[in-house]
Design goal:
18% strand; 9 helices; alpha/beta
Length: 239
Amino acid sequence: MSQFKSEQEAAESGVYIRKIQSFVKREGRLTSGQAKALEQYWPRMGLLHTDGKLDTEYTFGRQAPLVLEIGFGMGKSLVEMAKNEPDKDFIGIEVHRPGVGACLAEAAEHQVTNLRVYEYDAVAVLADCIADASLARVQLFFPDPWHKKKHHKRRIVQAEFVQNLRTKLALGGVFHMATDWENYAQHMLEVMSAAPGFVNQSESGDYVPRPDQRPLTKFEQRGHRLGHGVWDLMFEKVN
């Protein structure tokens, strides 16, 4: 495809360039509770990529710092964060439908009102739905590590993704990552340390202790008992 200077040019010429995806769509089977939650709460909490740019003031009925989480899994920690930080508004993105259903059910159970969710590809949502310089924090917790070397190109934390993310963060906004794969932590640190416009919030120039705002998951507690490490990285947008 080298004869095309950009994906846009290729598209205009009727050629489709396959994008490398950082996730595998695992549809899974919905439980009855997840299906009921989707039916009952999606009209209030669900957001559609096809609706384009998100008007957060209209969506949440107020102006507040906006936090976005990419790949929230089953949503338990995201709901807990939204509940613990009622002064902020939260947007979650997840491609796994059972996880979306579980998140909606959890939010309803805890009467969380400052949370909305997308069931779509995060890269597309960021590009098409999130206004520039609008995010106070972006969270990426335990993304797929793609641990085989030949799959490392599928890892979501790459230079191009980080620069696209930078345009969406407000000045002073923070990109917070966490992983239990040391090799991926090193990869994240390498990419972020080389990324223009960011400064590491770690006093030692590498990782930060888990901040109180990120809940300790059952999975993580089990990992601690087994002697597994978890690495948190926090990089602030400075220009």
